[in-house]
Amino acid sequence: MHAYLNSKKPEFQITIEHLQKDLGSLRTGRATPALVEDIKVNAYGSVMEIRGLASLNVPDSKTVVIDPWDKSLIQNIEKGIRDAGIGLSPVVDGSVLRIMVPQMTEENRKQIVKIMKEKIEEARIRTRGIREEIREEIMKKEKEKEFSEDEKFKLFDELEKLTKDYNEQITQMGENKEEEIMSV
Question: How many domains does the chain have?
Answer without folding.
Answer: 2
